[in-house]
Design a protein that fits this description.
Number of strands: 8
Enzyme class: transferase
Subcellular location: Cytoplasm
Helix content: 25-40%
Keywords: Cytoplasm, DNA damage, DNA repair, Methyltransferase, Transferase
Strand content: 15-25%
EC number: 2.1.1.63
Shape: globular
Radius of gyration: 16 Å
InterPro entries: MethylDNA_cys_MeTrfase_AS, MethylDNA_cys_MeTrfase_DNA-bd, MethylDNA_cys_MeTrfase_DNAb, MGMT, MGMT_N_sf, WH-like_DNA-bd_sf
CATH class of the largest domain: Mainly Alpha
C-alpha cells in the first residue's frame, strides 16, 4: 500500500492597528497564500481545523521565513502603501467558489462591486445568493477583497469580519461612496 504524502503548511501571525492590534493568522503552502483569519476568528484551533479539512495529510509548521513575503505585503496594505498583492494564492474550494474568489481578487483597489455584478462576472447571473455564500466563505479575506462587495442598493452587507471592519477597510482604500445602513446578514 502506498503511503500518503504529507504537505507542509506554513503559518505565522500579524498584528496591526487597523486590525485593532489583534492577531490574524496567515497560512501558506508551497503554492501560495491559502488562508488569512480575521481578528475575531483568530485562534490556532480554527487554523488547525481549517487545514485539516482543506489540506489532507498536512503538517502545520510555524515558519516566519516562508510566510514573510505574504506578511510584508499585507502589512504594507494595512499601512496604506500597497494597492495590490503580487504573490500566488492557493485557493482551496469548489470550482464555483474558486471562480468567485478569483473575481473578487480582480476588483481594483478603491472600487466596489455588487453581488449581482460578481454573479455576472462568473457567468451565472442568477447565482447572486450563491455568490454571497462563496464570498462569506472566502478563506483569504483582505487579500481577496470580499470587503469590496456591497449590496445592489449601495449598502454595506454581510462581512464575516463585521460591518465595522468592512467599513474601515473601505475607508483605508479611500472609498466613501456607500450607505452605512447595511446588515450583518446577506442582502444582495
Amino acid at each position: 500500500m502506498k503511503a500518503l504524502q504529507s504537505t507542509t503548511v506554513y503559518w505565522d501571525t500579524l498584528v496591526h492597528p487597523v486590525l485593532h492590534n489583534r492577531p490574524i493568522y496567515l497560512v501558506a503552502t508551497d503554492n501560495g497564500l491559502a488562508q488569512v483569519t480575521l481578528p475575531h476568528e483568530s485562534t490556532m484551533e480554527r487554523v488547525e481545523a481549517w487545514v485539516k479539512r482543506k489540506i489532507p495529510n498536512a503538517i502545520l509548521v510555524r515558519d516566519l521565513a516562508q510566510v514573510a513575503p505574504y506578511k510584508q505585503q499585507l502589512q504594507e496594505y494595512l499601512d496604506g502603501s500597497r494597492r495590490s498583492f503580487t504573490f500566488a494564492l492557493d485557493f482551496r474550494g469548489t470550482a464555483f467558489q474558486n471562480s468567485v474568489w478569483q473575481a473578487l481578487f480582480e476588483i481594483p483597489y478603491g472600487e466596489m462591486r455588487s453581488y449581482a455584478e460578481i454573479a455576472e462576472r462568473v457567468g451565472n447571473p442568477k447565482a447572486v445568493r450563491a455568490v454571497g455564500t462563496a464570498n462569506g466563505m472566502n478563506p483569504i479575506p483582505i487579500v481577496v477583497p470580499c470587503h469590496r462587495v456591497i449590496g445592489k442598493n449601495n449598502t454595506l452587507t454581510g462581512f464575516r469580519g463585521g460591518l465595522q471592519m468592512k467599513e474601515e477597510l473601505l475607508h483605508l482604500e479611500g472609498v466613501q461612496a456607500f450607505v452605512n445602513k447595511g446588515h450583518e446578514k446577506y442582502r444582495f
